[in-house]
Amino acid sequence: MGAEPDRITIDGDIDVTVRRSPRARRMTLRVARAGGAVVLTLPRAVSMAEGRAFAQSRADWLRKTRATMPQRTVARFGAALPYAGKRIVLTPAETKLVRLDGERLLMPAHRPAGVVSAAWLKHIARQKLARAADRYAARLGLSYRALTLRDTRSRWGSCTHDGRLMFSWRLAMAPEEVLDYVAAHEVAHLRHMDHSAAFWACCEALMPGHSVHRRWLKQHGHELLAWVFVEDAGFD
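The line above is the sequence of YgjP-like metallopeptidase domain-containing protein; the predicted structure tokens follow.
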């Protein structure tokens, strides 16, 4: 008996990634908000034939849902990339350094625009998030152990029990107030490792009116996730 496929196609045009999960209790279908990728999760005891039939029965829903998702946008020269809630045009230039010039991000013409712009966003995100986290932690009279950046798909930030903060570097693309809110949210977890009323009161004390920024992420966060930077890179 051969290995079962990790991808199937239904209706001839909908590609579905298949994942097995020993923890899953039922079959689930999810559509990624960035790009519309479809993932079918199957419990261990469910057959591939059952999974295929399940996905097939929801083909119309999948097609309608994917139609509402923003298409992936490649970060290339000439693209208008979100930055701090605005748009900047990725512009090739005779330069060795990346430099923001009004509404243009000037970058070395001989280097891939996606790699360079992603590295620049990470650099900016680290600076801004560290400043915000330091500021909010000082207000609480607390400190954190480390701050790391990742390209996460399901959360914009997290805080561990031992005080390690993690943020998505794509927050550099969001409005400044939204980035600040996520920093305040995670720092508040240094005091309350839950989402209790006390936690939300702490968030409100750190950033009054934070709910509008939380709402912005729910409404527009998928637009930031839709950007493709081709490959990962660091920034010196």
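Note on the example: The first strand starts at residue 7 and ends at 10. Residues 7-67 form one domain.
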